[in-house]
């Protein structure tokens, strides 16, 4: 059985998810919002998701909301050996 | 062992706190005011003869068998309808009473068959018992004459005789054995709340009638079994009892269907299950049941159950049956190979919400300790993960706040995105009972469900919102409560953070959150929103019950937060009758979450990054746990498609059918090198599996389930596992093969480990559960006997936290190509993906998934009721039959996902909740059109499924 390509690739999906998180935290006071986005991603994203996130971020973070870009400074970069 | 005997007190218990003392047959008895003489006597151990009375329904006083004499009063009043009075002196056995009773019994028996020896109720018949109790020796009137017993009288048709109704798959109605005591009719009304039964005719013509003289199956009957349980004769009898005979021993256990967690007596003859009877002492169900728990257990012995382990190298190969040793060894080798080749994080697992706490705990332990990563998730991901997040953030704990008994003190029930009458029927019955006693109801649901309008139920307000606008509507309710000054300032000042409240109040007061603005988005008239908000805020004890219609959205977590805010605003937290109550889908979805099934937290909801928490397990398990969160189910599938995730151990979960965007799930599974499925049947996911480990049913193992009220209930083994091992034993074998030093001899030892390592379970043990029956966590030093109601003196997190809830429209939008919104749900007779219920007689009620569509939308498309229709979304298409109904609004269509042939999840998209990745099942933009039959995709899928279910050496593929 064949399967068609799904609409979003994993990387696109990660940007989409990060932006969704940012949208929620946009209603908070700015600093709290930045911290909230970073904490949420640190708490719930496994290292390979964060690694892919940083690959995109390091290439300029195309499509990422400003709050995501700002939060990136406090998102943990995964260890090299992490799963 | 023997049968678990329950005393029938004849009439329900009185809740009065005032005590009354009286004398019954010379014995002094003290009972609560309002108790009947019948019940008081039984409390004293004196059983007054009775037929029409039973303590599941109110007294009726029709059989005239329970008469007593009271000193100083004339006549012989019926003891069931006469309340006790202080100092009353009652005689239950006098010459006069004996004569009356014998006379009454003579009349009953003169119109009753005398086939006791061959009757299915032989040994369990109250009529038989009463004939014995009153000393009936002969019937002066004879058996000739007018009767309901014989088909013919002296060769002539007897028009009073009615044939047996065997239409219901689980029980029969034999009118010839009926004594018209009305117990079934009252059970249907008072206990179940369906009102399907009535008494037709008068006097000697009186007959029990389902609906308007219909067959049971054609009537409104929902087959809950309450009437069968209430029947004192063989008139309503389980077909299994007719076939097998009376049970000889019984064991109390917990139902393995929904999150209500009903207690049942499994009544056995040897290792054969005769019937499941709801247990009166069950604190979730209080002696009631639904069609699934009561009757739909036939899947346990279904011929399609797989009993031998199987493996195959490629998913295109047929299965090969192997020994347990070979299957375990193959799995272990593959997982180790994959980890060596692709990295430690390339494997993971899924725990089952259908398995026990102990089994779930072991699967996550295997992954964390054995696989050395945190790639563990559970089906709560796709149902109530937003509940965990939302309630955790606002209140500090990831669970409902009440017990089910709490509904008895509720004045206003607010149901959001849930249809308990279908999905949590026993709770629905308890709620309906309260509504009939005067409580008010508000329903927020796109469909007009049974809870909006059905027999003796009419919601005060029905907010039939457009799917996807929950946050807007809930925030508008808060807007009304704040701007009209209906909030509970004392409560908020005492229990919540005042500055956060002020921030929230300012936020919701903005005109964009007003009902008038929200009407434009949601389609709910502003006045309806205002009315609902006023009623919830001012109508007394307000309780919110919600389901997957809340969580399964892009903003699922935000809606949960909004709900938590509503309860805080109105002070509806921390006492009986109020609270926030997520209705959990599966029997042990609460437990699976409690047991550390999420990739970011250890048992008891403690984040994996906490050093102190990891230390507890590091030292006990002798490993160094990974401090990074693992992958969630959707992330696992993404990683599989990307090539970094290659092996998965799935216990009791059918992600291919239950998870959204089937094509993406199958692509992920197809990309893996070792998929291990442990289940009862070759489920849909198993089409992509390399190893199949046969699972065991809840009847075959010991353990515990935790229901929606945090209640830890015992599951008790009543028969040997047909597959050889309980599921926890299989996981243990895998662990041992991986070199882990596991030596659990009984699930109680697993619970001991949970209690030792999880503060909220500190006092839980099998001995304690034996003593208490069940307990609700937290159960520890602070709450030695458990916690029926949470947040009584303050929130678990300290101060309750108000959080802003901005509405953001989902990106799944309707447009010219996909103009309708599809939402999904369940129906009563089927359960989840249907793997169990489809393999029972429940298919009599629901043989296929149907698409509900409004007459207006149907007419536009030239569709008639029953037509095959094509349902298309951006993700895929399928076909099914249409059902035209105005239960759904124009623009909205609805279906269930119980049948794999339909595969509703081919349609659903991979949009998900922002916080938890819980999929957005409840909103999909679709188009509907006429069709000739199954789609190409369905045909291809079925072909692939059939191919993949071939077992070498078996002639036909097992479904």
TrEMBL record, chain A:
Pfam families: FdsD
GO molecular function: formate dehydrogenase (NAD+) activity
Top-tier EC class: oxidoreductase
Domain of life: Bacteria
InterPro entries: Formate_DH_dsu
EC number: 1.17.1.9
Sorted UniProt keywords: Oxidoreductase
Keyword Oxidoreductase carried by entry: yes
Protein name per Swiss-Prot or TrEMBL: Formate dehydrogenase subunit delta
Protein species of origin: Aminobacter niigataensis
Automatic annotation (TrEMBL), chain B:
Organism encoding this protein: Aminobacter niigataensis
Keyword list, A-Z: 2Fe-2S, 4Fe-4S, Iron, Iron-sulfur, Metal-binding, Oxidoreductase, Repeat
Lineage, top ranks: Bacteria, Pseudomonadati, Pseudomonadota, Alphaproteobacteria, Hyphomicrobiales
Bias (Polar residues): 932-949
PROSITE patterns registered for this protein in UniProt: 2FE2S_FER_2, 4FE4S_FER_1, 4FE4S_FER_2, 4FE4S_HC3, 4FE4S_MOW_BIS_MGD
Name of the protein: Formate dehydrogenase major subunit
One Pfam family linked to the record: Molydop_binding
Domain (2Fe-2S ferredoxin-type) ranges: 18-96
NCBIfam families: Fdh-alpha
CDD domains on file: fer2, MopB_CT_Fdh-Nap-like, MopB_Formate-Dh-H
Family annotation (Gene3D superfamilies): 2.40.40.20, 3.10.20.740, 3.30.70.20, 3.40.50.740, ADC-like domains (2.20.25.90), Dimethylsulfoxide Reductase, domain 2 (3.40.228.10)
PANTHER family: FORMATE DEHYDROGENASE H (PTHR43105:SF14), RESPIRATORY NITRATE REDUCTASE (PTHR43105)
EC class: oxidoreductase
């Amino acid at each position: 059985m064949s399967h068609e390509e799904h609409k979003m690739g994993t990387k696109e999906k990660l940007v989409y998810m990060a932006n969704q998180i940012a949208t929620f935290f946009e209603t908070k006071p700015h600093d709290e919002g930045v911290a909230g986005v970073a904490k949420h991603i640190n708490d719930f994203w496994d290292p390979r998701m964060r690694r892919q996130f940083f690959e995109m971020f390091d290439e300029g973070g195309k499509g990422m909301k400003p709050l995501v870009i700002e939060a990136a400074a406090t998102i943990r970069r995964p260890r090299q050996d992490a799963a | 062992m023997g049968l678990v005997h329950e005393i029938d007190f004849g009439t329900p218990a009185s809740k009065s706190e005032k005590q009354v003392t009286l004398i019954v047959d010379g014995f002094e008895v003290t009972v609560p005011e309002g108790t009947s003489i019948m019940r008081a006597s039984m409390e004293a151990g004196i059983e007054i003869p009775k037929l029409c009375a039973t303590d599941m329904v109110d007294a009726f006083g029709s059989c005239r068998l329970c008469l007593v004499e009271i000193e100083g009063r004339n006549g012989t009043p019926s003891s069931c309808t006469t309340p006790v009075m202080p100092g009353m002196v009652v005689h239950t056995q006098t010459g006069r009473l004996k004569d009356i009773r014998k006379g009454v019994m003579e009349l009953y028996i003169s119109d009753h068959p005398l086939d006791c020896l061959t009757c299915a109720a032989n040994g369990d018949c109250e009529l038989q018992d009463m004939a014995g109790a009153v000393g009936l020796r002969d019937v002066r009137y004879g058996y000739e004459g007018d009767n309901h017993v014989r088909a013919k009288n002296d060769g002539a048709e007897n028009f009073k005789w009615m044939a047996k109704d065997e239409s219901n798959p689980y029980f029969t109605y034999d009118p010839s054995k009926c004594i018209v005591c009305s117990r079934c009719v009252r059970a249907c009304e008072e206990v179940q709340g369906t009102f399907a039964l009535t008494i037709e005719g008068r006097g000697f013509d009186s007959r029990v009638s389902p609906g308007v003289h219909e067959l049971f199956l054609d009537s409104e009957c929902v087959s809950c079994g309450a009437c069968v349980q209430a029947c004192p004769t063989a008139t309503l009898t389980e077909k299994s009892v007719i076939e097998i005979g009376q049970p000889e021993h019984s064991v109390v256990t917990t139902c393995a269907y929904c999150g209500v967690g009903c207690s049942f007596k499994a009544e056995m003859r040897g290792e054969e299950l005769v019937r499941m009877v709801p247990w009166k002492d069950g604190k979730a169900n209080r002696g009631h049941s639904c069609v699934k728990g009561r009757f739909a257990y036939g899947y346990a012995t279904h011929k399609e159950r797989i009993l031998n382990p199987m493996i195959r190298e490629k998913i295109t190969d047929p299965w090969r049956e192997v020994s347990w040793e070979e299957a375990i060894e193959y799995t272990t080798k593959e997982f180790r190979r994959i980890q060596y080749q692709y990295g430690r994080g390339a494997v993971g697992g899924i725990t089952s919400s259908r398995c026990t706490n102990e089994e779930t705990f072991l699967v996550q332990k295997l992954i964390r300790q054995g696989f050395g990563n945190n790639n563990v998730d559970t089906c709560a991901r796709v149902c109530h993960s937003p509940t965990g997040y939302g309630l955790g953030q606002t209140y500090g704990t990831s669970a409902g706040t009440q017990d089910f008994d709490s509904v008895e003190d509720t004045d206003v029930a607010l149901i959001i995105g849930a249809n308990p009458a279908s999905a949590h029927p026993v709770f629905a019955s308890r709620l309906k009972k309260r509504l009939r006693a005067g409580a008010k109801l508000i329903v927020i649901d796109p469909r007009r469900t049974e809870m909006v309008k059905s027999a003796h139920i009419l919601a005060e307000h029905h907010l039939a919102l457009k799917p996807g606008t929950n946050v807007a509507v809930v925030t508008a309710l808060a807007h009304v409560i704040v701007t009209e000054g209906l909030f509970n300032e004392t409560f908020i000042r005492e229990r919540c953070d005042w500055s956060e409240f002020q921030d929230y109040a300012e936020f919701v007061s903005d005109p964009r959150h007003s009902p008038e603005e929200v009407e434009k988005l949601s389609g709910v008239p502003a006045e309806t929103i205002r009315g609902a908000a006023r009623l919830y805020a001012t109508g007394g004890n307000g309780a919110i019950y919600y389901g997957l219609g809340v969580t399964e959205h892009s903003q699922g977590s935000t809606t949960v937060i909004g709900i938590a805010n509503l309860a805080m605003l109105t002070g509806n937290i921390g006492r009986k009758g109020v609270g926030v109550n997520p209705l959990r889908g599966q029997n042990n979805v609460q437990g699976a979450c409690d047991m550390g099934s999420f990739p970011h937290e250890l048992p008891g909801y403690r984040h994996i990054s906490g050093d102190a928490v990891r230390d507890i397990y590091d030292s006990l398990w002798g490993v160094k746990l990974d401090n990074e969160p693992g992958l969630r189910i959707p992330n696992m599938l993404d990683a599989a498609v990307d090539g970094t995730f290659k092996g998965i151990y799935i216990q009791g979960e059918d992600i291919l059918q239950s998870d959204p965007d089937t094509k993406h799930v199958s692509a992920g599974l197809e990309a893996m090198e070792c998929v291990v499925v442990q289940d009862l049947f070759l489920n849909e996911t198993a089409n992509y599996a390399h190893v199949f480990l046969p699972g065991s049913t809840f009847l075959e193992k010991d353990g515990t389930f935790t229901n929606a009220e945090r209640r830890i209930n015992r599951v008790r083994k009543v028969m040997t596992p047909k597959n050889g091992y309980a599921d926890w034993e299989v996981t243990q074998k895998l662990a041992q093969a991986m070199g882990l030093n596991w030596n659990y001899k009984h699930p109680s030892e697993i619970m001991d480990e949970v209690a030792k390592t999880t503060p909220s379970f500190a006092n839980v043990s099998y001995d304690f559960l034996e003593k208490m029956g069940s307990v609700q966590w937290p159960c520890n030093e602070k709450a030695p006997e458990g916690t029926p109601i949470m947040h009584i003196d303050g929130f678990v997190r300290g101060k309750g936290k108000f959080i802003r809830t901005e509405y953001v429209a989902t990106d799944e939008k309707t447009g010219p190509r996909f103009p309708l919104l599809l939402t999904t749900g369940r129906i009563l007779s089927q359960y989840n993906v249907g793997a169990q219920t489809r393999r029972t007689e429940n298919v009599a009620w629901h043989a296929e998934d149907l698409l509900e569509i409004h007459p207006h939308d149907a007419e536009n498309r030239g569709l008639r009721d029953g037509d095959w229709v094509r349902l298309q979304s951006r993700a895929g298409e399928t076909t099914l039959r249409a059902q035209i109904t105005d239960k759904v609004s124009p623009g909205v269509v609805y279906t269930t996902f119980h049948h794999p042939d339909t595969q509703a999840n081919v349609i659903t998209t991979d949009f998900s909740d922002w916080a938890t990745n819980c999929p957005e099942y409840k909103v999909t933009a679709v188009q509907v059109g006429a069709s000739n039959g199954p789609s190409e995709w369905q045909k291809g899928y079925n072909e692939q499924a059939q191919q993949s279910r071939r077992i070498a050496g078996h002639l036909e593929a097992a479904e």
